[in-house]
Design brief:
Layout: H1 6-17, H2 29-40, H3 46-61, H4 70-82, H5 87-98, H6 102-107, H7 111-123, E1 127-130, E2 150-155, H8 158-171, E3 175-179, E4 191-197, H9 200-206, H10 210-217, E5 220-228, H11 239-250, E6 256-262, E7 265-271
Parallel strand pairs: 1-2, 1-4, 2-3, 4-5
Antiparallel strand pairs: 5-7, 6-7
């Protein structure tokens, strides 16, 4: 590892946060510092670090970029909620917005089946964490949450967090969204259930082998982790590869787990033992 002046970290973080590409996202300093720390271990000099940092950040953040201007969408949401929409109107609104985000758009053809699978796990929980949530909370109109669990969601984009908190205010008062990089700073909250949808493979690219430590850090009895069952083009199966990723993350731990597939999404339900 080359000797990198820590002052360069601060300069690169500030430059990135103020850049045209990322300024609107208001990314947490913890996320950027974590990437820099990891990439510095592989860098030959400051110029090499800056190149690696730009490439890694793009690979991490690019999947989150979408054609949604969250400040404008937040205003539209507030106006929509003022009309006191019924459940079907909420479903129509959420469905429309999810079509504009890649990860949730992929799930729309099997959304009802997916919600029906999640529902019993969420229903029997008092506290649920949604990790790296993106627009996952917009599935709420399809869930039958008679038990009214507390839902705490985490994402790295400030505009999206502000939008989600307005959504919770209008539709689900026990929901809360927090701006936090859960890999660099795992949640401390105790929970019955943690949901981690279509992100474990991206965490692995960001920091190889990190999912094991991440899973262990979570104070939740049950983890539901999903991963794509095929590549974006739909030509190659990823089931064996992503199953091995989960097996490696929990190898040697006395945790029960099961796997199912809904649409093009592999779903792993992991039951942690009481001592972990």
């Amino acid at each position: 590892m080359a000797r990198i002046d820590p002052a360069n970290f601060s300069a690169m973080i500030e430059k990135t946060q103020n850049s045209a590409k990322y300024k609107m996202l208001d990314l947490p300093s913890e996320l950027l510092e974590d990437i820099l720390t990891q990439e510095a271990k592989l860098s030959q000099n400051s110029a090499d670090l800056e190149r690696r940092f730009r490439e890694k950040l793009h690979n991490i953040i690019a999947p989150y970029l979408e054609e949604i201007h969250y400040p404008s969408e937040t205003e539209k949401l507030q106006q929509f909620a003022c009309g006191k929409p019924d459940l079907e109107a909420w479903k129509s609104y959420c469905f429309g917005l999810m079509t504009r985000h890649a990860s949730t758009r992929e799930r729309l053809p099997y959304l009802e089946t997916f919600a029906a699978f999640l529902n019993p796990y969420i229903q029997q929980s008092k506290v649920v964490l949604d990790l790296a949530c993106a627009l996952d909370p917009l599935i709420l109109p399809w869930l039958q949450l008679d038990s009214q669990p507390q839902l705490i969601c985490f994402d790295v984009q400030s505009p999206r967090i502000e939008f989600l908190n307005q959504f919770f205010k209008a539709f689900y008062r026990l929901g809360k969204a927090i701006r936090q990089d859960v890999l660099a700073d795992p949640p401390k909250q105790k929970a019955d259930l943690a949901i981690f949808l279509k992100e474990a493979h991206r965490f692995e690219k960001r920091r190889p082998g990190c999912n094991r430590e991440f899973f262990l850090s979570l104070s939740a009895r049950t983890l539901i982790v999903s991963l794509p069952s095929q590549d974006l083009a739909g030509k190659h199966s990823l089931e064996a590869y992503h199953t091995r990723l989960i097996e490696a993350a929990i190898a040697g731990l006395s945790w029960d787990w099961s796997k199912t597939c809904i649409g093009n999404e592999l779903i792993f339900v992991i039951q942690k033992d009481e001592t972990s």
